[in-house]
Amino acid sequence: MKETIMIVEDDRMIRNLLRLYLEKAGYTVVEAADGEEAKRVYVETQPCLLVLDLMLPKLSGEEVCKWVKEQSPDEAAVIMLSAKASTEDRISGLHIGADSYLTKPFDPEELLANVEAVLRRTGRFCQKIIYDGLCLKPMKGEVWLGDRLVCLTSHEFRMLHHFMKHPNIVLSRESLIENLHPNGSQSVMDRTIDAHIKKLREKIEVNPSSPERIRTVRGMGYKFVVD
User: Alpha carbon of 33 to those of 3, 105, 199: distances in Å?
Assistant: First the structure.
């Protein structure tokens, strides 16, 4: 699958049509029907791009756009949708942070072309791995759990990155050691890996003593579980 795109539009028919086109093109699609829901879904899914209608219930598209850009100005692009077609309206939308502006009605193929063009310009910032509210950002060296920044050591970060790149696959302690020290530059014992896992669980699990994300597979190693 390609990047995650969020459609923020209160018209269900338009959302369904856009989802159809975007998923057919290979994108992962999430939705929100109003501005408040958009903020919640954004935090949970960390999309690379928002297709954002300006006329939304509860919180306007302009307010959502400003909020998104305040969170992470480089990481989420915004394509604004509006029935307002004047030059002033377009300029206003771009000034508050939109990366592109489409006026209604539009052809879904035109939107898809805009999505691809915007992601070509901004996609280098969107190398994220996201599962169930846990978001790892390799380029920034950051891990977020919902809206909370998780502080990891370099070893913990590299180990979690390795896990998240291989979901639902059992990784042996030997493979984890190789990932941390690919050239065999250090002698690492199994219990060292176990200690890293324990610390990692304390930081990303709801209940570290009964982990749901990083599970032990007896006699084999560990597995990062994704439902």
Answer: 20, 19, 39
Instruction: State the pTM of this model.
Output: 0.72
**pLDDT tops 90 at residue 36:** yes
Contact residues for 198 (Cβ-Cβ < 8 A; gap 6+): 208
Q: Measured in whole angstroms, how far is the alpha carbon of residue 181 from the centre of its chain?
A: 28
Tens digits of per-residue pLDDT, 128-174? Answer: 888 888 989 887 888 999 888 999 999 899 999 999 999 999 999 88
pLDDT value at residue 125 = 63
Tokens (6 digits) for 145: 């759990």
Distance CA(227)–CA(216), nearest Å, equals 16
For the chain, first and last CA: distance in Å? 16
- Residue 45: per-residue pLDDT: 87
Whats the size of the chain, residue-wise?
227
Segment 2-22 shows an average pLDDT of: 92
Residue type, 82: S
Q: Across residues 19-28, what is the average pLDDT?
A: 92
Helix axis angle, 61-71 to 35-45, nearest 10°: 30
Q: What angle do CA 16, 1, 134 make, to 5 degrees?
A: 95
Given a contact cutoff of 8 angstroms between Cβ atoms, the answer to whether 51 and 8 are in contact is yes
Residue 87 tokens read as: 């030059």
Angle ∠(136,122,131) on CA atoms, nearest 5:
25
Q: Residue 190 in contact with residue 174, Cβ under 8 Å?
A: no
| Contact yes or no for 23/29 (Cβ under 8 A) | yes
For residue 130, what is the enclosing H or E element?
strand 129-131
